[in-house]
Design brief:
By secondary structure, this protein is of the alpha+beta class. It folds into 3 domains: 6-89, no CATH class; 105-338 and 352-371 and 425-461, no CATH class; 505-626, no CATH class. The strands form 7 sheets. It has a 5-stranded mixed beta barrel. The longest helix has 22 residues, at 190-211.
């Protein structure tokens, strides 16, 4: 299909504004291109909110596109349809549409604390754990526990479906397991299901084997092995849920929770996981009540956190990928427990805000589970400074608010991790891998040389986070790498007050070479930054192309002195899409073979000064190798 041009888009906008329609089901518009081959018409149904050219027009608008055989384009973004804009002929879209129509016709179903565990609803402290009512395909726990062999197979069932049911009976599944196995594939081609099941399972096993090479995890985004399917109340393989429900559309909500002392937990043996392993949960909670709350929060499934000993090397370091870009349900007082704040809450080493592993579990957005009427979430500030009635409430809400910055800012995450506790020191390093978008992760070992683990993390973290270590940390490294801080410096020296810069430091693993393409001033005279006060203001003097001297105001927001003198300066990109308020400069010495030895850093915080320096033309983009 030819790309839609501006005139076509303008015509669409005109039709929207005048309310004209070219037919179809609901607001629909037809855009025509000049076909060069035999044309065919394809309908694209747009998602209600597609972030693109016609973003202001909301609603499930339909467009009929005349195609010349090239890949169809999304009329809004003028790219191939995004994950939400679906081609009407797309098999996944058709399957999803059938599913939505079928589920909409289901009778209303209610499960409650009374029906699931025989507990009066009024006695359940967390309101969302009392009852769930919906038209979703939810079954009761009692039905899920019923053996399939007692149900039999009706003779008029489709032959292929009969084979699948006979397979469930032969495996001695209960109805919940069979339901979890069959429900997601109701709308698939049954003739190919069994062969596809075998292929998918082998593919998943192969991907896990390839993810771990020696002691290095080369695919840090490997998903969890299992998912708790809330509709059937059974734990199922991740690959099954992804294939059956198409992960990008399936409402999976990971759960993050505070850990409890062993004395406060029980190891529950449950049909939910087929009695394969005991599930440690707080004594006063129940998995069926947690299921009700998660269903009320809009989840279809959540990840299963069990880890078998032989799986730890791969699963422990990669667990952060479960939470990437997702909505996360957080139980801050322990799994399934109501949220309450007591004296000493933040001093307890089991506190959710204190554990190293939970730092990577903050997700894109958070749902605080275990909410109760009159609980901490319903407290109101008493002034414009964010103070609450008690000190513990004030600290709680400030801690919650600070989580929004953890996944974006290097030194916020490092400072936060310093204040957390872990069983093994290596956990604090492994817990940063997904926050720093590492391309690979060392396999998990409880005891290892910490500086080596830190080096492995820095070598694989995203280039932008590596640039933060270069441009923002004010001291040269005290190990073999002087361009970035060591683990010892992370834990013993003041970290920068958080700020941001746009630059990237890349790495050639084979050559053990760290390098960057940045703005460079070969000779800049720096003065006024030789003291040790914080927020020292000084000057940068450079010569223009005509030999004229120009002076710029600079600031050092750290206590590392920069002696007066002439240096080579490497600068962050001031023309970034997300324009920051400062341009950051690394101060150092140029070495042979275009190498750079870092001494310290400063910033130009006035955008007028930044623009003036750019227009002067004395800084050129060049490549430097960092020592």
């Amino acid at each position: 299909m030819s790309r839609l041009n501006e005139d076509t888009l303008a015509g669409m906008c005109s039709n929207f504004e005048t309310g004209q329609s070219t037919g179809g089901f609901g607001p629909a518009h037809t855009a025509y291109t000049q076909p060069t081959r035999e044309a065919r018409k394809t309908r694209i149904i747009l998602a209600p909110r597609c972030n693109n050219a016609l973003n202001q027009y909301l609603g499930p608008h339909q467009f009929d596109i005349i195609s010349n055989g090239s890949p169809p384009l999304c009329p809004r973004s003028r790219w191939p349809p995004c994950g939400q804009c679906r081609l009407e002929s797309d098999p996944e879209f058709i399957e999803r549409r059938k599913r939505d129509i079928a589920f909409a016709s289901l009778p209303e179903v209610t499960i409650s604390a009374q029906t699931e565990i025989g507990q009066a609803e009024s006695s359940v402290i967390v309101p969302l754990q009392r009852k769930h009512t919906s038209k979703g395909p939810v079954i009761s726990s009692s039905l899920a526990d019923t053996p399939c062999g007692t149900l039999g197979i009706l003779g008029f069932l489709d032959e292929v479906l009969t084979d699948l049911l006979e397979h469930c009976i032969a495996k001695d599944y209960n109805f919940g397991t069979a339901y979890a196995f069959l429900r997601p594939i109701w709308f698939k081609d049954w003739d190919t299901i069994q062969a596809e099941l075998v292929r998918r399972e082998e593919q998943e096993r192969d991907e896990r084997q390839k993810a771990l090479i020696g002691t290095q995890i080369v695919n840090p985004h490997i998903p969890p092995r299992r998912v708790w399917d809330l509709y059937s109340n059974r734990v199922v393989p991740w690959w099954w849920i992804v294939w059956a429900n198409h992960e990008q559309q399936s409402p999976l909500i990971p759960m993050s929770h505070a850990w409890m002392d062993e004395a406060d937990c029980v190891k529950a043996s449950t049909n939910i996981n087929g009695f394969e392993w005991p599930v440690p949960i707080p004594k006063e909670t129940n998995l069926n009540l947690i299921r009700i709350e998660m269903l009320n929060l809009g989840a279809e499934g959540g990840q299963s956190e069990d880890l078998h000993a032989e799986e730890w090397r791969l699963d422990r370091p990669t667990i952060g990928s479960v939470y990437d870009g997702r909505r996360v349900a957080c139980y801050l007082n322990g799994l399934g427990r109501p949220l309450r704040l007591k004296t000493g809450y933040f001093d307890n080493e089991q506190c959710w805000f204190k554990r190293a592993w939970t730092l990577q579990e903050v997700g894109h957005t958070r749902i605080i589970a275990g909410d109760t009427p009159g609980g901490p979430l319903h407290a109101k500030p008493i002034d414009e400074y964010g103070n609450y009635e008690t000190g513990i409430l004030t600290r709680f809400h400030k801690q919650l608010g600070s989580l929004d910055h953890v996944s974006l800012r290097t030194f916020v995450a490092l400072a936060e991790m310093q204040n957390r506790v872990s069983v093994y020191p290596a956990d604090k390093i492994a817990g940063l891998a997904h926050i720093f978008k590492s391309s690979g992760i060392p396999a998990y070992y409880e005891i290892q040389v910490l500086e080596d683990a830190w080096t492995a993390l820095v070598n694989r973290m995203h280039p932008r986070f590596r640039a933060h270590a270069f441009f923002l940390y004010p001291r040269p490294g005290d190990t073999c790498k002087q361009w970035r801080l060591s683990l010892n410096q992370v834990t013993t020296t003041p970290l920068p007050v958080d700020c941001d810069c746009y630059a990237e430091v890349y790495r050639d693993e084979v050559a053990d070479d760290d390098w960057c393409e940045v703005r460079c001033i070969e000779q800049g005279f720096v003065r006024g930054l030789g003291g040790e006060d914080v927020n020292r203001r000084g000057e940068l003097m450079v010569k223009g192309l005509d030999g004229t001297k120009h002076v710029f105001n600079v600031i050092a927001t750290h206590q590392c002195p920069i002696p007066e003198g002439t240096y080579t300066l490497l600068g962050s990109n001031p023309e970034s899409y997300h324009r920051t308020r400062s341009q950051h400069w690394a101060v150092g010495r140029r070495l042979p073979k275009h190498r750079f030895k870092k001494i310290s850093v400063f910033a130009i915080t006035d955008l007028v000064e930044v623009d003036r320096l750019m227009q002067l033309g004395v800084d050129e983009e060049t490549t430097y190798h960092l020592v």
